[in-house]
């Protein structure tokens, strides 16, 4: 009983991270109809920026945890959004009129470039961070069987759901959200109506990168270690979450992330941890067999 509750907390925390990154995939797919396969590396870069920010604040003698978090988050979002903008300008904008395969290959090339760039500039060794937020609460049990909820886990889950609500409001209730949905339906007609399509797409990439930046900061706080290879696996898991929940659906991306986090947590606890990825992708296949558009996705209807 206590073990299951603890694994649920751990899985929900991991799923929240996957969900935030999956929203970035979903936003980009919704507006250009393609997957940004460099998004995982953008997340990886944000983790390195975050760990550099925490190290800098420590070197400056800043002891206030809230101030440190605010400053590091601001710097991480700022620089990571710039990377997101650069990916769109380099990998997608020049190929906007090309076949769908060309931007895909370009994004994979950018992904490989970013991974090797970080490896050469930061080194191949794992970079560690001393705990910034410590402590937590016991929600059930006592002693060795106690169910523990750390303050970092509370911060990750609360931040994720606040951002989920904020981005849902942004997409459904604001002028920028209407521009995004217009670009999704017909970019040519949207341009005729006076909307700057190129700027809307760039801002969408930057918003997705900003979400990856927050995820990278949370992962750095939670695990305390980063390396140049984390982007690939996390990116694949987040992409899987987006597909599982329904690519193009923000709530679906979050639901898919939570499901994958819970599957990994429970499978690693009760079965062999070596096969948790197999279990995740097997469940994805089963869901897509029953619902090809994902759990919350809607089938595309092409009007002729």
Automatic annotation (TrEMBL):
InterPro entries: ABC_transp_permease, BCAA_transport_permease. One of its GO terms (cellular component) is plasma membrane. GO terms for biological process: D-alanine transmembrane transport; L-alanine transport; L-isoleucine import across plasma membrane. Pfam families: BPD_transp_2. The keyword Manganese does not apply. It is a multi-pass membrane protein. It is found in: Cell membrane. The chain crosses the membrane at residues 12-35, 42-61, 67-86, 98-118, 148-171, 192-214, 220-240, 252-272, 278-297. Its main location: membrane. GO terms for molecular function: L-isoleucine transmembrane transporter activity; L-leucine transmembrane transporter activity; L-phenylalanine transmembrane transporter activity; L-valine transmembrane transporter activity. Keywords: Amino-acid transport, Cell inner membrane, Cell membrane, Membrane, Transmembrane, Transmembrane helix, Transport. Belongs to the binding-protein-dependent transport system permease family. LivHM subfamily. PANTHER family: BRANCHED-CHAIN AMINO ACID TRANSPORT SYSTEM PERMEASE PROTEIN LIVH, HIGH-AFFINITY BRANCHED-CHAIN AMINO ACID TRANSPORT SYSTEM PERMEASE PROTEIN LIVH. This is Leucine/isoleucine/valine transporter subunit membrane component of ABC superfamily. The lineage of its organism: Bacteria, Pseudomonadati, Pseudomonadota, Betaproteobacteria, Burkholderiales.
């Amino acid at each position: 009983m206590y073990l299951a509750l603890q694994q649920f907390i751990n899985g929900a925390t991991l799923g929240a991270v996957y969900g935030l990154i999956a929203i970035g995939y979903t936003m980009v797919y919704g507006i250009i109809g393609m997957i940004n396969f460099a998004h995982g590396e953008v997340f990886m870069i944000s983790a390195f920026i975050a760990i550099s920010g925490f190290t800098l604040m420590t070197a400056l003698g800043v002891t206030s945890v809230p101030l440190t978090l605010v400053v590091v988050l601001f710097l991480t979002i700022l620089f990571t959004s710039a990377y997101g903008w650069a990916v769109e300008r380099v990998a997608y904008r020049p190929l906007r009129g090309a076949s769908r395969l060309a931007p895909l290959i370009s994004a994979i090339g950018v992904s490989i470039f970013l991974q090797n760039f970080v490896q050469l500039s930061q080194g191949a060794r794992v970079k560690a961070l001393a705990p910034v937020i410590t402590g937590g609460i016991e929600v059930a049990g006592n002693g060795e069987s106690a169910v523990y909820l750390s303050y970092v886990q509370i911060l990750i889950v609360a931040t994720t759901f606040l951002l989920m609500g904020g981005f849902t409001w942004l997409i459904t209730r604001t002028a920028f959200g209407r521009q995004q949905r217009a670009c999704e339906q017909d970019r040519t007609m949207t341009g005729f109506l006076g909307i700057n399509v190129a700027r809307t797409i760039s801002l969408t990439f930057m918003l997705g990168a900003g979400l990856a930046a927050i995820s990278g900061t949370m992962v750095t706080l939670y695990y305390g270690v980063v390396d140049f290879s984390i982007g690939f696996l996390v990116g694949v898991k987040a992409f899987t979450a987006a597909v599982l929940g329904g690519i193009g659906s923000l709530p679906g991306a979050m639901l898919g992330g939570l499901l994958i986090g819970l599957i990994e947590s429970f499978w690693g606890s009760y079965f062999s941890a070596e096969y948790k990825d197999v279990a995740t992708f097997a469940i994805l296949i089963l869901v897509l067999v029953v619902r090809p558009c994902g759990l919350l996705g809607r089938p595309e209807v092409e009007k002729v």
